[in-house]
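User: Fold both of these, please.

Assistant: Here is the first one.
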Amino acid sequence: MIDSGQYYRYVIVNDTGTFEITLLAYSGGCQAIVRKNIEVVEAGALPVSTQSSKASLIVSAAVRPNPTDGNFTTEITLSQSSEVYLRLISFGTGKVVNAKRISGSDQYTVHYSLGNLSPGVYLLNIMAGGEMKNLKVVVQ
C-alpha cells in the first residue's frame, strides 16, 4: 500500500498474477463484504485500443454554476433514452446527501436547490445503463 485515507487505499502491485481484493463497507450496524479477483499482467501484454468498441451512453454532463451556493443545474446528454440515477455525495463524510432517479429522455436538465449544504466538495455520481460519470461540485 502506498497511500491511504479514511475512504480510499492506493496500492501498487509489482508482481504479475491474480490477486483477490476484499472490500469492506460499514454503515450503522451493518456490514458488507465484496471480493474481486484482479489479474495483473506484464506491461504490453494486452492490446491497447484507441477506439471504444461501443459508443458511450453518457455523451456529456456538466454542473453550472460551479462553485455554487447549493443552487445549481446539471445538464446530461445521452446517446439514447435511458433511466439515470443521480447521487450527490459529501467528500468529507461519504454520505449521500441527495438522490434522484429520472427517465424518459436522452437529454436532462436537473435543478438542485440545496441551500442547506455545508461548504465543501461534493461528488455528483451519474449512472445510466452500465456507465458511470462523476462530477466534482464545490459548495461555497
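And the second sequence with its predicted structure:
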Amino acid sequence: MHQGHYFLAVCKQGWFGLAVLFLLFLSGQSFAAVCDSEQATQEDLNGCAYADYRKADGEMKVVLKKLMDKVSPKGKKTLLASQRKWEAYRDAQCKFTTLGSEKGTVHPMAYASCLSNITQLQTHVLEDDLNCPEGAINCWGQ
C-alpha cells in the first residue's frame, strides 16, 4: 500500500485533525504554531507529522529529479529501479518500527515521523550521488 494511503488508513479519526490544520492554514496561522502549541491534540500532532513527511518527500523529489537529469540513460533506469525498491524498504521498515504503536492514537504520528526520517536519509544519499566528483569510483558512470 502506498505510504500516503497507509497513513490515511491508520489515521482512523485523523480527518478531523487534518481538516483543522487545513482550516488554520487558510486562516493564515502556520502549521508550526499548531504543532508547537501546548494545546495541540494528538490529531493535530498526527497532521503535523504527516506535513513534515510531505515536506521531506518533496525535498527528496527535487534532488532525485536533479540526479535523473544528470545520469546516463542506463543510470536513469537503474536509479528508478533503485528508488522503487527503496520506497518498498521505507514502507516496510516504518511498519516494523511503529508496530508497537499500531493500535494507538500516536501511531499515525510515529509512522509519519519514521517516513520523514528515512526520507531525509535517502535525500542525503541522493545528494551524495548528485555531487559525486568526476572520476570517483562510486559515480558509476554518471
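Residues 37 and 125 are 33 Å apart (CA to CA).
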